[in-house]
Amino acid sequence: MDLGISGRAAIVAASSKGLGLAVAHALAAEGANIAMCSRDAAGLSAAAASIAKHGTQVFHRALDVTDGEAVSSFVADTAARFGRLDICVTNAGGPPSKGFLDISVDEWRRAIDLNLMSTVYFAREVIPHMQRARWGRLVTITSVSIKQPIDGLMLSNAVRAGATGLAKTLANEFGKDNILVNNICPGFTLTDRLAELGQAISKARGITVEQAHALWTSNIPMGRLGRPEEFAATVAFLCSEQASYVTGTSIPVDGGFAKGLL
Fold first, then answer.
1. What are the two backbone dihedrals, phi and then psi, of residue 104, each rounded to the nearest 5 degrees?
2. 9-189+227-253: what fold?
3. For the chain, where are the E strands, in sequence order?
4. How many CA atoms lie within 13 A of 228 on its CB side?
5. Which of 13, 24, 203, 239 is at 20 to 30 A from 61, Cα to Cα?
6. What is the pLDDT of residue 1?
7. Please, is 144 exposed, middle or buried when counting C-beta atoms within 10 Å of its C-beta (0-12, 13-18, 19+)?
């Protein structure tokens, strides 16, 4: 299937590794020009070099997505570099795994900045470009925890739900401009973040990391963990011409982990 995004310009946040990097590869493979950002300057440079092998243009900058001014400058420079801005995939690392009584007020504020305000910053900057073109795709990467809260992930469960509410409301407000806004919810996927969670659960429960993985897979109907490229393929579809009537949704890519009907 031709996704119809060749030559379009796409921002992918937190794309030096993991899900963000997989999404950048998926979009570049479809011919999109890619702007990448991450706090990890060395990792980002290597990631950008790997994306360039697809033959599309690549722009990258090390920045912290919780810095609104840095996001604003990055978006403006991306639009100037490519002469357009069509797609934005927001993404950020997950907050620490802790129980409610162990979380400080400052940790709540940091989680809100990381997983909610970062999306606000990108949306504020990219939507005017999309309005002028009367075409846009904004995809927020959150977590399957917005469908089914996950034990030990209090911060993620709470704050990512806020980002989901933001995405739904943006979809309602800007659908008239042909700007489609969707939220995509990864389940347990083989990334560095999952490795960190496995270590945290191993320590908290006195079990091995392998046993932690077994706990997850026992609740996944497909009986295995996801691969980043499987997740990225769904994001690429949501960014495509083919997804022209899909907006305001929250789509889990989780092997069936979330058990609710919606």
1. -80, 165
2. Rossmann fold (3.40.50)
3. 9-12, 33-38, 58-62, 87-90, 136-141, 179-186, 250-253
4. 16
5. 239
6. 79
7. buried
Q: State the angle between helix axes of 68-82 and 118-133 in degrees (0 to 180), rounded to the nearest 10.
A: 30
**Partners of 34 in the β-ladder:** 10, 58
Q: Which of 173, 189, 170, 176 is nearest to 250 (CA)?
A: 170
Question: Which regions of the chain are under pLDDT 50?
Answer: none
Domain spans in the chain, listed from the N-terminal domain onward: 9-189+227-253
pLDDT tens digits, one per residue of 45-76: 999 999 999 999 999 999 999 999 999 999 99
Q: What is the DSSP letter of 94?
A: P
Dihedral angle, C-alpha 240, 194, 227, 185, nearest 10 °:
-30
Rounded CA-CA distance 155/255 in Å is 23
**Alpha-carbon distance values, 157 to 125, 152, 160 (Å):** 26, 9, 6
**Contact 140/184 with Cβ under 8 angstroms?**
yes
How far apart are the C-alpha atoms of 154 and 101, rounded to whole Å? 10
Contact (Cβ atoms closer than 8 angstroms) between residue 80 and residue 95 = no
Give tens-digit pLDDT for 75-98: 999 999 999 999 999 999 889 888
